[in-house]
Design brief:
By secondary structure, the chain is α/β, with parallel strands linked by helices. Helices cover 54% and strands 15% of the residues. Its EC number is 2.7.13.3.
């Protein structure tokens, strides 16, 4: 290759060698292709073909660029549509779950009244219908969040014994209605996970186990193995055939089409998505007609074995304790009043916002505060609890109730030392939480 900084002698030497190479190539072409005229014709034809191919390539590149621009626009539109869907579901979740939560509280209060057999059957069927609607709404909201690329998790130490107690309060009536034994093994394990999504994972596994078990029981426990704490759910149900094990984690997949077995086939799909996002390995083993076990691997937190276990017997009675409820929805306030007063024997004080709560409290602080996150005119449960605690001069135990699945709410609750309760509110779970807070 000629260089501008080569001395003249060097350039001449290079040119001579280049000329020799070119002459040698021409000689070979003449030997193989004939005369110089044939070579010239071949070169002209080759040049024309190169030009034609170049024009084709330029047209293809222009078409590809146009397609890329169209795909970029379509992708941006799809991402915006997905963000809009997520924003809509997040905003609508409160309005959707609010009346459902109030209806559940009223229905629970109704079941405590004297009813004949026909009325009892109607309330049971209403309860089942509410349960189905609630599960479907939770599933849709969970899948929407897990499909979002911007999902945030609030990872923190989670005592599994606390999780087991809440699950026991939630599922014991369901298992009892089917004549099944539901057992939660005591454990001192503490794991690193998102408490809301870990609970959702466990809820879906326990619900599925009860759903597909007709006799025997379901057992839930935690066992250390290979540096992980494995949350395990055992059942004595129908088992999962080998041909179905690859599809059970897909949406709308059910092992049976029996109408007596409720569900939409979304529970295990949510489990798979949540475990994948959190980095929790999941495994399953099953034997047809003998039972199934699902295991979720959770990273343990140091010193987990030293975690003290608070037994149900240690929970104090709630009778006579004062609960200040801050809720802007009149139906929800009435539902809380009936459950707290008639079922739990507490003394409810009701307020619609922060200012009314301060006036209602007066000089006698309540034993516990129950506040809804979303109040009127920009008011929030956080503002209400902060103001009430400041007026009381101490950190009054508090429960934040919300339909919003927002990690920032969970982080704020943890920072303020309050419990987070998701809507719809289940009276047994509410009673269990209040009992532990007032211990």
């Amino acid at each position: 290759m000629l260089r501008d900084d080569d001395p003249p002698a060097r350039q001449v030497e290079k040119l001579i060698r280049i000329n020799a190479v070119l002459i040698d190539r021409i000689d070979r072409l003449e030997e193989t292709r004939g005369s110089a005229w044939s070579v010239f014709q071949g070169a002209v034809a080759l040049e024309q073909e190169v030009l034609a191919r170049t024009r084709d390539l330029e047209r293809a590149m222009a078409d590809l660029s146009q397609r890329n621009r169209e795909l970029a626009v379509a992708r941006a539109s799809a991402e915006e549509a997905n963000r809009s869907k997520t924003r809509f579901l997040r905003a609508a979740s409160h309005d959707l779950l609010q009346p459902l939560s109030a209806a559940r509280l009223f229905l629970s209060a109704l079941t405590d009244t004297a009813m004949d057999d026909h009325q009892t059957e109607l309330t049971d069927r209403l309860g089942s219908a509410f349960e189905s609607v609630e599960q479907l709404m939770h599933a849709v909201l969970d899948i929407s969040r897990l499909d979002s690329q911007r999902i945030e998790f609030n990872r923190q130490p989670v005592p599994l014994d606390d999780l087991f107690r809440r699950l026991a309060a939630e599922f014991a009536p369901v298992a009892q209605a089917k004549g099944l034994r539901l057992t939660f093994m005591p454990t001192g394990a503490v794991v690193d996970s998102d408490p809301i999504f870990l609970r959702r994972i466990a809820q879906n596994l326990v619900s599925n186990a009860i759903k597909y078990t007709q006799r025997g029981g379901v057992a839930v426990g935690a066992r250390p193995r290979a540096g992980m704490c494995w949350l395990s759910v055992y059942d004595t149900g129908i088992g999962i055939p080998a041909v179905d094990r690859n599809r059970i984690f897909d949406e709308f997949q059910r092992l049976t089409h029996d109408s007596a077995t409720p569900g939409m086939g979304l529970g295990l799909s949510i489990v798979r998505r949540a475990c994948a996002k959190l980095g929790h390995p999941i495994s399953m083993s099953s034997e047809a007609m003998r039972g199934t076990v699902f295991r979720v691997g959770l990273p343990p937190v140091g010193g987990a074995d030293a975690t003290a276990r608070l037994s149900d017997a240690a929970l104090p009675g709630l009778r006579g304790r004062v609960a200040l409820v801050v809720e802007n929805d009149p139906d929800m306030r009435r539902g809380y009043e009936m459950i707290l007063r008639d079922r739990l024997g507490m003394v409810p004080r009701l307020a619609g916002g922060t200012a009314e709560a301060l006036a209602t409290m007066g000089e006698e602080p309540p034993d516990v505060i129950l506040a809804d996150y979303h109040l009127e005119n920009g008011d929030t449960g956080f503002a209400a609890i902060e103001a009430l605690r400041a007026a009381a001069g101490r950190r009054v135990p508090a429960v934040m109730v919300t339909a919003h699945r927002d990690p920032s709410i969970s982080r704020s609750c943890a920072a303020m030392g309050m419990h987070l309760l998701e809507k719809p509110v289940r009276p047994p779970e509410l009673a269990e939480i209040l009992g532990r807070l007032l211990a």
